[in-house]
Design goal:
Layout: E1 13-20, E2 23-31, H1 33-61, H2 69-80, E3 87-92, E4 95-99, E5 112-117, E6 120-125, H3 127-136, E7 139-142, H4 156-164, H5 166-173, H6 179-182, H7 190-221, E8 225-226, E9 232-233, H8 238-244, H9 265-274
Antiparallel strand pairs: 1-2, 2-7, 3-6, 4-5, 8-9
C-alpha cells in the first residue's frame, strides 16, 4: 500500500478506509520517530548500492569513444534501459569530428575527414523517489478489523497501543511454533486439535497471571527475585518459573506426599512472592 503524501507528520496516527484485495479495510497510518532515522539510513544504503551497481554497468558499456552513429545510438539506448531504483542515466551522443592530414591553414577552415561519435554519460538522482522515501521513512500501516464506530469501536491511538502490546503475547505463545512442540503432535480430528489448543491457551493465561503476580510483588516490595545465572531480576518471567521448579518431585504413598528433595531458597522465594505456601506440594488443598 502506498502511503499518500501528507500522512507522515511526526507522531501522527491517521485512520482511513482503503480497499485491499477487493475488500474494504481500515488502515491506520502511523509515523514512528524512533524508526525514522533507522529506515532513512536503510534506504540511503540501498541508494548508494543501486548507484554503485549502475556505475559498474555504465562503465562496462560506455567505453566507446570512436564509433559510428548507429553503434553509438545503440549503446546509448542500452544504457538508458539499465534498471535502477534511485539514479537514472542521461546519455548524450556527441559528434567527434576527425580532421584530415596535414597542418591546419591560417586562412581556411580545416577539412573534416570523418564524423565519429562517442558517449557522454551522466547519472541523476530520482528526486521524486527520494522525496517519497524520505516522507515514508518511519511510517507503517496497521490493518485492524475493529470498526471506527459502534460498541466495538477503537480509535487510531487505541489500535496502535494494542499493536505495541502484542510482544507480550508473542514472547509466550512463540513456543507453540517450535519444532519440538509442532513435530510431536499427532492429532487428526479437529475436536482433539481444538481441545489441545484450548489447553495451551489456558496454560499460557495461567503463566501470564503468575508472571504478573511476581512482578507486582517485586514492584510493591522492592525485593527482586533470582533469575538467570543466579542474578537478581526486576522482571521475572514464566519461563524462569518452569526452570526453577522443573526438578520438584513428590513421592506419594501410604497417605503421605514427601518431597524427594527439599525446596531451595530460590524456590521458596518464588512461592512467597506468589502467595503460595510451601506445603502446597506435600499437602494440597482438597478438591
Amino acid at each position: 500500500m502506498q502511503i499518500p503524501p501528507g500522512h507522515c507528520s511526526p507522531f501522527s496516527k491517521i485512520g482511513r478506509e482503503d480497499t485491499l484485495y477487493d475488500k474494504a479495510s481500515r488502515a491506520v497510518v502511523v509515523h514512528s520517530s524512533s524508526q525514522d532515522q533507522r529506515r532513512q539510513q536503510h534506504w540511503e544504503r540501498e541508494s548508494r548500492a543501486s548507484a554503485a551497481t549502475l556505475e559498474a554497468s555504465v562503465h562496462a558499456v560506455a567505453h566507446q569513444e570512436d564509433c559510428g552513429q548507429a553503434d553509438a545510438e545503440a549503446a546509448a539506448a542500452k544504457l538508458r534501459a539499465l534498471p535502477s531504483a534511485y539514479p537514472w542515466v542521461d546519455v548524450a551522443v556527441p559528434e567527434r569530428p576527425r580532421d584530415g592530414p596535414g597542418r591546419p591553414s591560417s586562412t581556411q577552415p580545416r577539412v573534416i575527414k570523418a564524423l565519429r561519435y562517442g558517449l557522454q554519460v551522466t547519472l541523476h538522482e530520482r528526486a521524486e523517489v527520494i522525496a517519497r522515501k524520505t516522507q515514508e521513512a518511519g511510517c507503517f500501516v496497521l490493518l485492524p478489523n475493529v470498526p471506527t464506530a459502534g460498541e466495538m469501536a477503537h480509535r487510531a491511538g487505541d489500535v496502535l497501543q494494542a499493536y505495541k502490546e502484542q510482544q507480550g503475547i508473542e514472547q509466550h505463545d512463540g513456543f507453540l511454533q517450535a519444532p519440538l512442540i509442532v513435530n510431536s503432535l499427532f492429532l487428526k480430528t479437529p475436536e482433539r486439535i481444538e481441545a489441545l489448543g484450548l489447553g495451551f491457551l489456558l496454560a499460557l493465561r495461567l503463566g501470564r497471571l503468575v508472571e504478573r503476580a511476581w512482578r507486582v510483588h517485586v514492584e510493591t516490595t522492592g525485593n527482586p527475585l533470582i533469575g538467570w545465572a543466579k542474578k537478581a531480576t526486576q522482571k521475572p518471567t514464566a519461563f524462569m518459573r518452569m526452570t526453577q521448579f522443573a526438578g520438584v518431585m513428590v513421592l506419594k504413598g501410604a497417605g503421605q506426599r514427601p518431597l524427594v528433595h527439599p525446596l531451595s531458597t530460590v524456590q521458596r522465594q518464588y512461592l512467597v512472592a506468589l502467595g503460595v505456601p510451601a506445603p502446597y506440594f506435600t499437602a494440597p488443598p482438597s478438591g
